Amino acid sequence: MDYQTQGKVFNKLLMIFSMVMVFFVALVIAFYLDRIDCSISKLDQCLPRTMTDLALMGDYFGGMLGAVLGFFTLMFVLSTVVMQKRQLVVSREDKGLTQRELAGTSKALNAQHQIAQKNLLQATIWRVYDEFVSLTEQDVRRSLLKAEIEELLFEYENISGEDPVCHYFRSRLK
């Protein structure tokens, strides 16, 4: 159940709770009026005239409505707990999905990083090789460039494994 549906269910429960409470308040008032033998025609005579009558009426309403209100409040709290439990389950499922997606993204980023490293190394090897080819055989720098190319090729092989690029350059360096 998604969050919007849960919100609608919660609002319906709140509305039902309110209507039931209004019904029970009206029911308690009706029982009170019946108990003191009061009808609509004698309503002005039924109102409490003394503090004792007022205290008795308050005691009656407090006793009756307090128990009913307590019961419905407990039911409402329990329904809230059940809904929160469901939301927690959904939240955990979402967390699991997010973690799996992040793991997949991490793998893709690692693969992309390796490709970028390979491309950078290839470009460096080509640059150094072009410089190597342009030098004459007697130049001392040529042997240094050859060692640098060998080092780059070794690093390239560590990233990509056996690769035709490495074989090509090694065959040209001899």
Could you explain the architecture of this structure?
The protein is an all-alpha fold and 174 residues long. It folds into two domains: 3-94, no CATH class; 112-173, no CATH class. The chain is built from five helices and no strands. It has helices spanning 3-35, 43-46, 51-134, 140-160, 164-173. The longest helix is centred in the middle third of the chain and has 84 residues, at 51-134. The chain is rod-shaped. The model has no long low-confidence stretch (mean pLDDT 81).
Précis, in short:
This protein is mainly α and 174 residues long.
Structural class based on helices, strands and sheet pairing: mainly alpha
Mean pLDDT: 81
Strand content: under 5%
Total beta strand runs: 0
Overall geometry: rod-shaped
The succession of helices and strands, N to C, reads HHHHH
Helix count, per DSSP?
A: 5
User: Over all CA atoms, what is the radius of gyration?
Assistant: 42 Å
Q: Gap between N and C termini, in Å? A: 70 Å
Largest sheet: none
Q: Structurally, how many domains make up the residues?
A: 2
Helix content: over 70%
Task: List the uncertain runs.
Answer: none
